[in-house]
Amino acid sequence: MRESLSNIIKEMIAPYHDGDIEDVDLLVSVAQCAWNMNLLPEDLSKEILKDFLALFEDEKEIKQLIDTFYLYKKMNYSDDDRLFIDYDFIRVDDEGLYKFEVQSTPYDEENYHNNFKALMDEELKDRYEIDEENKKGSFIFTAKLRPGLWRKIQINKTATLDDLHYAILDAFEFNYEHLYSFFMDNKAWSEYCYSSPYDDYGEDASKVYLYELGLEPKFKFLYLYDYGDEWRFSISVFKELDTTVEKPEVIKVKGEAPTQYDYYDDEEYE
Asked: Which of 40, 94, 156, 192 is the most exposed place for a label (fewest CB within 10 A)?
């Protein structure tokens, strides 16, 4: 009698979680994709990988897990032809302990298209509809350099963090000569950051759209410009609007913009 697919998947993902149900849920879905890719012809395997990765923002990390689980299945269960269709979490006790059960069927192309592929297509459709809704409208950000010195900037949700970078600099009449980073946990030099294109420090800010960040009013983060002088701007989400603008607009100003560079005449010190 073959080992249950539920137990196989449980063993496969065990080294990668500490019991948190959200982590387990993610890992099981990744294992499902990797397992089924082993059964598919190469063209279908590439297609399902592309569709699955489209569901995630951090494609690189997910791809690494898929490669790991794919190899695990190939090395240990190469002859197992069960198609991993779906899975359910079942509550075991009142303290929040869960187990999952896998639903499977013998693999053939008809089962693949009618079951696993159909579920994947539905997830992609739901994700697309959510993304389209999230793209609508604009944000008003407050960019504050210090108390009494700030700008309110309206910018569309479809703009990137790189676009926001330029909008902030324009609002304070700064030039574009230096690198920058957005620290989304509001802590300078943390790992949770998006940075200038081609900067080695963080992820590319030009590839991150505002609507992808789950921003809500009062959310705060740090924009640091010029790694030498370290101009630090406190950025907060002031408001979400249904309307859009043709280009980023400064809609309210408080305080006079500072001089970006202070050059002193040597004669003053003679």
From this structure: 94
* DSSP at 2: P
Q: Which residue carries 């082993």 as its tokens?
A: 38
- Report the number of distinct structural domains present in the chain: 2
E-only strand ranges, 46-179: 82-91, 98-106, 138-146, 149-156
Residue 24 domain boundaries = 5-133
Question: How do residues 35-69 score in pLDDT, each as one tens digit?
Answer: 999 998 898 899 889 888 888 877 888 999 999 99
Q: Could you tell me if residue 259 is inside a domain? A: no
pTM score over 0.85: no
Q: Are 167 and 153 in contact (CB under 8 A)?
A: yes
pLDDT tens column, 136-182: 999 999 999 999 999 999 999 999 999 999 999 999 999 999 999 99
Q: What angle do CA 143, 231, 181 make, to 5 degrees?
A: 80
d(C-alpha 35, C-alpha 18), whole Å: 22
Is the same domain home to 233 and 151?
Answer: yes
Verify that 90 and 176 share a domain, yes or no. Answer: no
Residue finishing a domain among 133, 149, 171: 133
Count Cβ atoms below 10 Å from residue 18 Cβ, excluding itself: 6
The set of long-range contacts for 41-45, using a CB threshold of 8 Å and a minimum separation of 24, is 44/112
Element (H, E) at 205: none
Q: Is the domain of 124 the same as that of 165?
A: no
Query: Do residues 14 and 47 share a domain?
Result: yes
Q: Which residue has the tokens 């008003």?
A: 140
Residues 238 and 152 in one domain: yes
Nearest to 225 by CA among 244, 246, 199: 199
Q: Which residues pair with 253 in a beta bridge?
A: 151
Secondary structure class of 45 (helix, strand, coil) = helix
Question: What is the rounded CA–CA span in Å between residue 23 and residue 59?
Answer: 16
